[in-house]
Amino acid sequence: MKNYLYPIGLAAALVLQGCQSLQPKTAAEVSDAAVEDAIVLPFPEPDPVKRELDEDLVYSYLVGEIAAHRGELRLSQSHYQHAAILARDAYAAERATRIALHLKDYQAGLAAVRRWVELAPNDMTARQLAAVLFLRDEQHTAAGEHLDALIKIADARKMDGFLQAAGALSVERDRAGAEQLMLGLHERHADDVRSLYALAVLEAAHRRFAESEQRLRAVIERKPEWEQPRVLLSRVLVAQSRRDEAIAFLKTSVTHHPDSVMLRTTYSRQLVDAADYAEALNQFRELYRLKPDDDEIGFGYAMLATQQERWDEARPVWQTLRGTSERRDEATYYLAQIEEQVGNDELAVGLFRSVGGNELKVDAVMRLARILGRNGRVGDAREALQQARIANPGRAADLYIAETQVVQKHADRDTALALYEEALGAFPENQDLLYNRALFVVELGDFAWMERDLRRVLEMDPDNADALNALGYTLADRNERLDEAFTLVARALKLRPGSAAVLDSMGWVLYRQGDLVQAASYLRRALELADDDEIAAHLGEVLWMKGLRADAQAVWRDALVHSPDSDKIRAVIERLQADPQ
Known about the structure:
By secondary structure, the protein is mainly α.
């Protein structure tokens, strides 16, 4: 043998990683060993072999470890295999098996895993990988024997070996072979309902949803109190585009198992995915009652209550979450939003200032600047945004946008335009800045400037739906170039067919073109999607011009309930009622 030994300190360190029988045991390991001894395992363990460290053994471990670190995996595998034979060490056999699997050298893997099982017959991972390797070698009987052994070992350890088997087989490329192997395991253990559930799990992983559904329903019939099959069945139904059935099934399941956190959590999340936020809030409220110390449940509950403007309900939950290190910044941020919404501006500003983190901190600064601006503290708002821009250069464009919004609402025209020039000097191709300036200058009456900015946006991004919509709507509102306006808005509508704003624009273009029937249709659809006073003003005008004045007045009246101070609605009412037509 080549005389290729490292200093004894390094050699010992590397060898002791593998040859665990030579390692001194810690107190925790002694305790674990005591627990292990208390378990009656199904297979007799081989007697430990005491072998002195000799040159050949040390060399095999060293080369195996160093070659693995260098990426020379074939060399590493062969030396670990050699060490496993010399030392009868399960660790070395495991390393040899895993490396062979990585190399897809299944014959070497079979040799290594046989040694591993021989040295550690009650190791569940060894049995899992043995089943996989024998399956890949098309030795299905041997693979099945290792799965049966896995079940015995798992039962002794009070674990679910069937799920362990399904997990090992779920990633196999030979899906038919894996399912056949799992089916055989189930048939040999047909009295154990866990085997049927594990088979359903494997079929779901393989996207064989119809088969999985059938087996899951059988599992639930046999063991109705078992939660996991119910959860999986709901997911299988969703995967088959049957969300309504999944939700109905979970509702029934929660009714029969009211204290099941697992089922209620799954039900709640399905409700959120279905946008049934009111019922989702009801479920999270009950979850929070069941597990008030679960921060994830508390976070979901607080978010839903905040989203539905249940401020008094959300506030105490956010306050509780502020006491946790993981959720402190998020809870502070959303608590500040609540105080802003209920008009406690000073408290909101203080909370926003105390938000930490990176991304959330920047968002908090932008929101507190908005509060400061509307309270006449424009200088303080700008200073906060400018400091944040220095501290967070990656969000500088967003912070410029926030500053322009404060300035154009609460400062003079020239200051706002100067800030836009500064921002676009730093970010000349920022489409949001160009778009926002376009909307600002058109309010000042400069349509040509607006069009230049929007054309620049469309040069960079021809499919920018916001720019297409804004330019098309403004042309229609000015009653100019209506064919071009129609083309622009039609392009925007193709990109965003469910946008209330774009539907409103299309309705307005058609109104200007004289197609009152189609105009009313688009505007009604827009108003159904968004309870917006400008859309209501447009729809009312179209209905009025169609001679449906009672209908028009009804639309305006309903809109004024939600927006009693709407200048847009009052202006159109005054203009049309003053018109003698």
